[in-house]
Write a structure and sequence with these properties.
4 copies of one chain form a homotetramer. Chain A is an all-alpha fold. Chain A has a single domain, classed as Orthogonal Bundle (Helix Hairpins), CATH 1.10.287. Chain A is built from 5 helices and no strands. Chain A is globular and about 45 Å long. Chains A, B, C, D: One of its GO terms (molecular function) is nucleoside triphosphate diphosphatase activity. Chains A, B, C, D: InterPro entries: dCTP_Pyrophosphatase, DCTPP.
């Protein structure tokens, strides 16, 4: 199945690579720095939820400001994940597909 | 452009949702818990690199064990990111595309 | 050996507990939330260093703004660590002392 | 007030510095690497709590294995925080004391 109607991972990776190249940011984009930046962005996503109850956390998209902030941090996490994969030649979707295959054996359903 | 030859985001999100449902894990998958789990997996990816020099970090895929470990953590990060987006109804690719649009205005190329 | 001339851990823990109580923040200070807040503050400390080379990172205290920011994040990390330990009745200094004892056996010096 | 009956921060910092020196680990202990290691250990602490409800998280010290794991991660977090402060010449207790002073002004009690 394919998505015909929206951005795809490869296109986003190319846009991110062009974006970094046009700004001379490539020397900073070592795998180590990109992994660290990914973890920093993940923490910024967590920060939105840190004092919320589980129930409150489920309603975070209900008001526009919270929804925007969550989407913005999701974008940042995905951006660094894709850039990390780009510099190391990793196909993230394929890696996840194989991981699910392994987990289906490792954790049999109840 | 579309990927005809590999897993896609929507298909992976469906597999992850089915996987969690078959194991009764849904009650644990609050947005807060999934964001936290994402940050924990991001830290596990960082851990691989924590004592490496920038140069060493660029060679992490050269030996099979390191490469496997990196791909495995990438898969875990992506898994929680997609599950987080699934429970909150966020299109991660679209969110990133819009973020790149905004960043192209915010950070003009040199 | 004792510090006669500065704040001590017990006094800081008491100030932090009083501070939280006076603001009605105690219900938010579950061990889970405090651990998460600790990790968020640790990420904010990391953020200062994320694009620096190892050499640049060693000079981070040389300019006042950077030095203030680092000290501020160190304070936040320690604040949540001490509050976490307070709510769970953990003596952090004792826990570390015992861990060093164990590590001296586990990792013999070269 | 002083602690006469247990380890103190300065003594622990000295033990940690001696421990690292005896193993030739100093070159790895850049401020950047130590901040990153701190964040990785904070994530390992969070991992213990990631699927727990707030109520379950309050009972984590009740069984010995959980209690040991929590104390162990607390020790790791504190170890990297103190080593980070050591290499940058930061007095963590003083930094926190000053931060509480500032917060008492910034967040007046209700």
């Amino acid at each position: 199945m394919t998505r015909d109607d929206g951005p795809d991972v490869e296109g986003l990776q190319r846009r991110l690579a062009d974006f970094a190249a046009a700004r001379g940011w490539e020397p900073y984009h070592t795998p180590k720095n990109l992994a660290v930046a990914l973890s920093v962005e993940a923490a910024e996503l967590v920060e939105i939820f840190q004092w919320l109850t589980p129930e409150e956390s489920a309603r975070v998209m209900e008001e526009p400001e919270g929804a925007h902030r969550v989407r913005d941090e999701v974008a940042d996490v995905l951006a660094y994940l894709l850039q990390f994969c780009e510099v190391l030649g990793i196909d993230a979707l394929q890696a996840l597909s194989e991981k699910i295959d392994r987990n289906e054996i490792r954790f049999p359903p109840k």
